[in-house]
Amino acid sequence: MKLILASASPRRKELLAKIGLPFAVIPAKGEESITKQSPGDIVMELSRQKAREIAAQQTEECIIIGADTIVAKGETIMGKPKDAADAYGMLKSIAGDCHQVYTGVTIIRTGNRPASITFAEKTDVYLYPMSDGEINAYIASGDPMDKAGAYGIQGDFAIHVKGIEGDYYTVVGLPIGRVYQELKKLM
C-alpha cells in the first residue's frame, strides 16, 4: 500500500525512513486554520488538516501521515520565528527553564477500508541558562529560523539541553515509535 508523508520537513522524512517502508513526500500546502486552544489539541487539528488535504487528492488506496509540532511555555505557543528578533525572544524565554514540545500526528487510510487516527505526544524539555552571546551565536547560524520554538534539539542546540522527559523524537518532529505502532494497526 502506498505510504505518503504530507510534510516537507527533512527531519520528518529522515525519521519516517527509519520504519523501512518506501514512501512518497507530498507536502500539504493549504492554509492552516486553528480553532482549538490547548497545544495538544492545536497540533492534532493541524496534523488532521494536512493529512486530509493530501488524502482528498488520492485516487488509489494509500496511507497518509500528517504531522505538526509546536513549542509551548505556559500559555505561550511558539511557532517558527518570523525573524531574528522573534527567534531571540523565543530562545530568551525558554533558556534556563522547562517548556513543552507537542507533536500531533494524523494517519489516514483511504480506499475500501477507510480509517484514521489522530494523536498528540508531549515532551518536557529542560534547558541550561544561555547568555545573550550564546543566543545570538545560535541565531547567526541560521538554524533556528525554520523550527518551532527557534531551535532544533538534534543539531548544534543540543549543548543547551539539560534533559527531557518524554519521547526525544516528539521534539524532533515525529514520534516515530508511536507512528509505527499505529501504522501496524492500519496496514
Q: List unreliable stretches of 5+ residues.
A: none
| CATH topology descriptor | Maf protein
Which architecture does the CATH hierarchy give at level 2? Alpha-Beta Complex
Write down how many β-strands occur, each being a DSSP E stretch of 2 or more residues: 7
Tally of contiguous helical segments = 6
Arithmetic mean of pLDDT: 95
In what range is the share of β-strand residues?
Answer: 25-35%
Give the number of domains. Answer: 1
CATH class: Alpha Beta
> Terminal Cα separation, in Å?
8 Å
List the keywords:
single chain, 187 residues, alpha/beta, Maf protein, seven-stranded mixed sheet, 33% helix, elongated
Could you please describe the fold and organization of this structure?
The protein has helices at residues 10-17, 39-56, 84-94, 132-140, 168-172, 176-186; strands at 2-5, 24-25, 62-73, 76-78, 98-109, 115-127, 161-165. With 187 residues, the chain is of the alpha/beta class. The chain has a single domain (2-186), classed as Maf protein (Alpha-Beta Complex). Strands 1, 2, 3, 4, 5, 6 and 7 form a 7-stranded mixed sheet that branches. The N and C termini lie close together (8 Å).
What's the quick description here?
By secondary structure, the protein is α/β, with parallel strands linked by helices.
SSE topology:
Elements: E1 2-5, H1 10-17, E2 24-25, H2 39-56, E3 62-73, E4 76-78, H3 84-94, E5 98-109, E6 115-127, H4 132-140, E7 161-165, H5 168-172, H6 176-186
Parallel strand pairs: 1-2, 1-3
Antiparallel strand pairs: 3-4, 3-5, 5-6, 6-7
